[in-house]
Amino acid sequence: MxxxxxxxxxxxxxxxxxxxxxxxxxAGADVVAAExxxxxxxxxxxxxxxxxxxxxxxxxxxxAARTPELVEELAGGARVLLVTDAGMPSxxxxxxxLVAAAVEQDIRVTAVPGPSAVLTALALSGLPVDRFxxxxxxxxxxxxxxxxxxxxxxxxxxxxxxxxPHRLDDTLAAMAEVFGAERRAAVCRELTKTxxxxxxxxxxxxxxxxxxxxxxEITVVVEGAPEKGPEEVGPEELVRxxxxxEEAGERRKEAIAxxxxxxxxxxxxxxxxxxxxxxxG
Length: 281
Prior knowledge:
Elements: E1 4-8, H1 20-28, E2 31-34, H2 37-47, E3 54-57, H3 63-75, E4 79-83, H4 96-104, E5 108-112, H5 117-125, E6 132-137, H6 142-151, E7 158-163, H7 168-179, E8 184-189, E9 197-202, H8 203-210, E10 218-222, H9 235-247, H10 252-263, H11 267-280
Parallel strand pairs: 1-4, 1-5, 2-3, 2-4, 6-7
Antiparallel strand pairs: 7-10, 8-9, 8-10
């Protein structure tokens, strides 16, 4: 009889947010796979529980190598509990490889629902929540970051990102460049912790604020692209969008074609706007 893989959400800040089942799972699992065993120790002490099973590390550096070991434990009938440092495993955290491997072996996978920075930030943002998409962390290199952002420039759903505090100002500045400085957003910092802060405003305004330095765990929520008819996008905006794509590495011909599709106008309209801007310069 095969075992069961349990993904357990852990508090993103306030330990009191730990789901009631978490302590029971920590105490009863045959194997506890933790992203950071030291943080796990602090968590179990705070919950007043002692794991009876074997505790192993499971993080980005050993995820590929350790997954087969854990699948073998599961195949042998073990109850394996997976926890990460904060939030839900697999969501920008280790877990996907293990879940996929377990599913492939017809091993049951279940979860202990818990806190989520994505949903918490979304709910607090004040932005539309009926449709959203999670984009995780953006690339660190400026060109790659711009390229990723331009891919979703026309996305109508609310966007949610994670970001490191020391890169927040560059990321918000890039978002302002691609999405427009007036696009509404919310920077959610230290969610559920003592110094929780939600800063709301236009991307340009938020980029200027972040340039002064920001600390803590960061989640950024960005309003989706507004619904615009072709007549609402003027020549200057067409040229700006082409320029953003060129700076991200696209050739001008492809950039013009992509902007035309994105905005819903003939390629000739975009081409003429680019030529006119070049002649004017």
